[in-house]
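Appendix B. Chain record.
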Amino acid sequence: MSSAPVVRPAVPADLPAIQRIYAHHVLNGLASFEEVAPDLTEMKRRFNALVEAGYPYIVADVEGRVLGYAYCGPYRPRPAYRYSVENSVYLAPEAARRGIGRTLLSTLIERATALGKRQMIAVIGDGANLASIGLHEALGFRRVGTIEGAGFKHGRWVDSVLMQRALGPGQAAPPTA
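Structure tokens predicted for this chain:
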């Protein structure tokens, strides 16, 4: 597994690998505030909703194996938020510290910008998730706030760190569409 990842749009055949990766994080970490890992049917429903709405959903494929995935979706449902997206990036445990997260998030930023989005927001579970915070900072996100004790998981209170990055001209110009 020394090959560079190929980033490509996720397809339904990737969903079992995506579900396994996400289940690992739900059950063992604090990146997600879900406590029960969604089954494959639910992951398909979520995937279809984002793809059908035109949002990017991508995977990092290394030698035919999905080692990570990323997507963005609406930040919030109200119409005025339509130019803002929230990102998500998850890696298989063996993919950490190989640059795959950076590759996925960089690609996601490019694709969201191409869609005319103007702000990307990261809601990072756990203020101690220095790898995710560092990745986002390295790609131009800035920390805009912390919601202390936002969740209770694995027997402790967990913060949510909010980070934001302008896409394209950001708020410097009105949207074109």
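Further analysis of this model is presented in Appendix C.
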